[in-house]
Amino acid sequence: MIAAGWLRRIFYVIEDHKSAFLTALLLGLLSNAFISLANPLALKYLFDEGIIRKNFGLFTALSVAFVAIFTLWRLGVLSYRLFVQRVKNKILVSWSLKMLRRYYNIPYSEIITRDNGYFLSRVYDEISTTVLPVVDCALGLFNSIISFTVALGVVLFLSWRATLVLICVIPIVYRLSRRFGAKIKKESKLEKEEEAKLRGILGRALGSYKVTKTFNLYDGIYAKTSAQAGRFIDVLYARFKTSTIYQSLGGMFMSYAETAVMIAAGYEILAGRMTFGGFMGFMNAFWLVIGASKDMFERIPEMSRIVGAIERLVELQELEARQTNFSYGDEVKLEDVSFAYNDHKVLRNFNLKTKRGEKVLIVGPNGSGKSTLAHLMAGFLC
Amino acid sequence: MIAAGWLRRIFYVIEDHKSAFLTALLLGLLSNAFISLANPLALKYLFDEGIIRKNFGLFTALSVAFVAIFTLWRLGVLSYRLFVQRVKNKILVSWSLKMLRRYYNIPYSEIITRDNGYFLSRVYDEISTTVLPVVDCALGLFNSIISFTVALGVVLFLSWRATLVLICVIPIVYRLSRRFGAKIKKESKLEKEEEAKLRGILGRALGSYKVTKTFNLYDGIYAKTSAQAGRFIDVLYARFKTSTIYQSLGGMFMSYAETAVMIAAGYEILAGRMTFGGFMGFMNAFWLVIGASKDMFERIPEMSRIVGAIERLVELQELEARQTNFSYGDEVKLEDVSFAYNDHKVLRNFNLKTKRGEKVLIVGPNGSGKSTLAHLMAGFLC
After folding, report:
1. Which residues of A223-238 are buried (b: 16+ CB within 10 A; e: fewer)?
2. Fewer CB under 10 Å: which end of chain B, C or N?
3. Where is A344: in which H helix or E strand?
4. Which of residues 47 through 66 in chain B touch A, CB cutoff 8 A?
5. Chain A partners of B255 at a C-beta cutoff of 8 Å?
6. CA B163 – CA B172 distance, rounded (Å)
7. What pLDDT does A5 receive?
């Protein structure tokens, strides 16, 4: 259900670049599947065949061969990343122009209620914060799902018993990242608010240079600034504490998990069910599984956030086209025209008729409706 | 030489918090020395005593003991990080107030040449971008030096032959990070410039809503926007390419280095000069050495940059105190006063004498010097 909504929004964003996006997706999946499979298995064979059989020549040859293969893989990843960037660049340009086009569909009565900065942010900044991240997030999510699946297959293949221990770990990773993620987000918001207040107080202190010096108001200003700075660093510290505790807990939990899995795998070695190379490969794939699951759990809330933000783009895109081309006739005629901004009536039953080349002088005090009349005649207000 | 200048600047910044800073430094050094020593050696003994001797009970007991010790260490690191944050918070507050005090020492003739935003950035933002980073950077630099030294001692202890291979790697890490670092910085600057131009063009396009619609100028505007968007994504792509190639090269180089060290260590195992546990410990310490040296190489240019920025703070701090407290006498007397803004003479041999309670009306056209006269009498211009 949710996934279908997400896919619809992703395709909405990549519109004209579907095939490039799908190519990037496919390449990413292949690359991640390959490395999640090849890296642990290469370690296993390197140690089993080389070191344990005491064959230094074979060990060296295998090492060099693996390095050569992984070099090719890295070159592949390099061109993959450059390709994705080119796709993102194209999407950036085509969306900037698309948004600019839609801007001219916004009724003039809305344009005048906001300043330029607002529309620049809607037309340009929202692309950098929604359109581009949705591409990264979607590709990243698919890539971590494939890495997770393949690496889980590898640990199962190497030892299903030790894998049982690993599987108990994943839900706890999920719980930790969900719980602390929400708390940190809330505290970050509070921190930004308090910092904004501090900047506000400082700004006013700087603006009152003359008054402060003339009337010797230093003490009051320092006390006010100091009090707000204190409030700001209190919330900053609270946010820092939460995220530091989260990192510490996460790190501790990971070392417990690693130890539990290592003990299970060590038992398998001693029971003769796992080779030493198998152990090296197992630990490698273990970290791939953990990394991929953390990545998945972090991308899911990010994806909901971005998809929510895309709704704002859709809103602007779906504005009915008003990009009327002007053509001038021989006469302008207004008959019984009335106009009001909300409750404020500006024109009442106004009549005017003027021919091409005729000159009309319209006079009146401020606010009597001269500009409104001109805007109406030009078609900006309707 | 350079280090002495840096130390002087660090102490300048932490002024009233020297003992807290030195405590943080000492705790950090102890913690890093401990983990760089304990982590590889614990791995060595775990494998040598547990797995190789096929003693599962001992292997489990050692695992659990090490996890317990590392848990204590992590709790210590947690309180260390919270402590450092409290020190940084105190420094932030005391510097904000100190800068605000100095702001009132700036001559009024300088205040009027800039806007509020400029001084807010000098009084507040420069603290967040210089004072706080210098604390982190100094602590981080000392910590990576100690980690590097201790971990290098460990690899030497485990196998001096394999360490020789490792030592050849470090200068190459240094060269790579220097060379690409400079290039990326330059390209990032170019990217920001082109993006600013794009925002400028978009801003003007948004500002000309009425003209564009009335005169049907859409095509010209789209063409201009599209051309600048193209230039912007070209430099963005160039910068992305450089940093991606740097990461790829770095990753490739690291995997070659790891392989070379692994082959050397594998040879030592087969020659009977290294145990398997020793190999595990060696590879762990190898990554500590590489991580710490990368960290050192990245922090050194960062430190120069920050110390350079601190000079700007010093400049403002050393402004002679002009925070004169006003006291009013019974008379204001000006005798032959002349004043000029650069070449523009405003007052010439002006005389005025007024008693307490007396009312004086000063008249004159715009620019004749009325405000200048008031500012002079209040002592803002001198």
Report:
1. eebeebbeebbebbbe
2. N
3. strand A344-355
4. 50-51, 54, 56, 59-60, 63-64, 66
5. 67, 70-71, 74
6. 15
7. 81
Identify whether the C-beta of residue B236 lies closer than 8 Å to the C-beta of residue A89.
Answer: yes
Angle at B279 between CA B273 and CA B281, to 5 degrees: 125
Within 8 A of B226 by CB-CB distance, chain A residues are 93, 97
Q: Which of A96, A206, A210 sits opposite B120 (nearest CB)?
A: A206
Q: What is the pLDDT of residue B152?
A: 95
B325: nearest Cα among A218, A234, A129: A218
Q: What is the mean pLDDT of each run of 10 residues along chain B (382 residues)?
A: 79 88 95 95 87 81 90 93 93 88 82 81 83 91 95 94 84 77 80 86 85 84 90 90 85 83 85 87 91 88 83 75 59 84 82 85 84 79 64
Confirm whether the ipTM is greater than 0.85: no
Residue from A178, A197, A186 nearest A239 by CA: A186
Q: Flag if B81 and A244 touch (Cβ within 8 Å).
A: yes
Instruction: Cite the beta strand spans of chain B per DSSP E.
Output: 331-341, 344-355
Indicate the class that CATH gives domain B1-159+297-323: mainly alpha
**B316 contacts chain A (CB < 8 A):** no
Let me know: does A70 contact B253? Beta carbons within 8 Å: no
Q: Phi then psi for B174, rounded to 5 degrees?
A: -60, -50
Answer yes or no: are the C-beta atoms of B309 and B130 closer than 8 Å.
Answer: yes
Q: What pLDDT, on a 0 to 100 scale, did the predictor assign at position A145?
A: 95
Phi, psi of B346 (to 5 degrees): -110, -45
Burial class (CB in 10 A: 0-12, 13-18, 19+), B232: buried
User: In sequence order, what are the beta bridge partners of B341?
Assistant: B344
- Residues with Cβ within 8 Å of residue A314, at least 6 apart in sequence: A12
Residue B177's Cβ-side half-sphere holds a number of Cα atoms within 13 Å equal to 19
> HSE of A332 in the Cβ direction (CA atoms, 13 Å)?
17
CB B136, CB B250: distance < 8 Å: no
A339 exposure class (CB count in 10 Å sphere: 0-12, 13-18, 19+): middle
Predicted pLDDT at A187: 84
CATH of A1-159+276-323, one of 1.10.3720.10, 1.10.1130.10, 1.20.1250.20, 1.20.1560.10: 1.20.1560.10
Angle at Cα B94 formed by Cα B88 and Cα B98, nearest 5°? Answer: 135
**Regions in chain A scoring below 70 on pLDDT:** 1-2, 319-328, 382
Look at residue A328 in the predicted model and tell me its pLDDT.
64
Interchain proximity A216–B326, CB inside 8 Å:
yes
Flag if B116 and A207 touch (Cβ within 8 Å). Answer: yes
Give Cβ neighbours of residue B209 (< 8 Å, ≥ 6 apart).
Answer: A103, A104, A108, A111
- Residue-range domain boundaries for chain A: 1-159+276-323, 162-273, 331-378
